[in-house]
Amino acid sequence: MAITIAVSGKGGCGKTTLAAMMIKELVAAGSGPVLAVDADPNACLAMTLGVEVLGTVADLREQARSKTPSNAGTDRLSDFEYGLSSIITEARGFDLVSMGRPEGPKCYCAANNMLRRFLDKLNDQYAFVVLDNEAGMEHLSRRTTNHVDLLCMVSQPSPIGRITAQRIVEITKSLPIEIRRSGVVWSRTDQADDLEGIETLTCIPEDQDVLDACMQGRSIFDVQSSLAQRAVSRMLRDTSMLKN
Ligand SMILES: Nc1ncnc2c1ncn2[C@@H]1O[C@H](COP(=O)(O)OP(=O)(O)OP(=O)(O)O)[C@@H](O)[C@H]1O
Ligand SMILES: [Mg+2]
Questions:
Q1: Residue 149 above 80 pLDDT?
Q2: Does position 39 have pLDDT exceeding 80, yes or no?
Q3: Which atom of ligand 1 is nearest to the CA of 12?
Q4: 188 in ligand 1 pocket by Cβ < 6 Å?
Q5: Fewer Cβ close by (within 10 Å): the C or N end of the chain?
């Protein structure tokens, strides 16, 4: 079963950047195939990783909706397999699946269920699954996965950031997801902000090279020896996601 790492947190706090840096680190460590999952309808993970997405789960959902229903179970099964293989983008050292933007609340739910079924199916084929989520907390209750080995609650050291991290902890307690370890990743700072009862996983320093790459539309793989990347590397080792 794949080791699943998920990121969560408020808008613009650095979730996608963290997910991308973790993927870069896992690929560099060569510890098995990695699946990057962009579960944010406002997809940015692919771009941050320098990958072009050719199809999304939301596209597949739309195609399935406009098709005449078939009674043949085998047809449906092969549609599923074919659909899944058509939206996996193969990149350098990892694969990527993107949720895309469903067209309405109902489709949202259906696309989300489809993504979950895909991830269940793919679980055994990868050593790691890294999930980049949309801002807020709704995605947690919609749950794209059944278990999470490491939940990184990304936060900036502000009152709003602290409250958001605390709310995420409360929500996760009430969900039918097994979360093996969770903690706060303080983003764009050198200083951890202690939160009672919540582990600090790491602080990721402000890193001009990371910001420049984003502003210039370059991928995280184009950033050389970055301070932020080193913090991510340490965190993956400290949490035993990677061997030292
Ligand atoms: N450690 C860092 N140093 C400098 N800039 C950073 C760092 N981490 C993230 N950023 C910048 O902050 C901005 C927001 O980051 P990012 O897109 O990762 O946030 P997000 O939480 O995924 O946002 P959204 O909620 O919109 O999905 C980007 O311009 C990114 O380059
Ligand atoms: Mg993002």
A1: yes
A2: yes
A3: 23
A4: yes
A5: C
Q: What is the CA radius of gyration of the chain?
A: 18
The CB of 204 under 6 Å from ligand 1? The reply is yes
CA–CA dist 194, 11 (Å, integer): 21
Please indicate whether residue 164, judged by its CB atom, sits closer than 6 Å to ligand 1. Answer: no
Which tops the pLDDT comparison, 231 or 158?
Answer: 231
Assigned architecture for domain 3-238: 3-Layer(aba) Sandwich (3.40)
> How many other CB atoms are there within 10 angstroms of residue 77's CB atom?
10
For the chain, the domains span 3-238
Ligand 2 centroid–CA 210 distance in Å is: 14
Whether residue 214 has pLDDT greater than 90 = yes
Show Cβ contacts of residue 29 under 8 Å, excluding neighbours closer than 6 positions. Answer: 236, 242
Q: Is the Cβ atom of 57 under 6 angstroms away from ligand 1? A: no
Q: Is 208 exposed, middle or buried (0-12, 13-18, 19+ CB in 10 A)?
A: exposed
Q: Give, rounded to a whole angstrom, the gap between the first and last alpha carbons of the chain.
A: 21
- Answer yes or no: is the C-beta of 228 below 6 A from any ligand 1 atom: yes
Residue 134's pLDDT band, with cuts at 50, 70 and 90, is confident
Q: Tell how far the Cα of 18 is from the centroid of ligand 1, in angstroms.
A: 8
pLDDT tens, residue by residue, 113-132 = 889 889 999 999 999 999 99
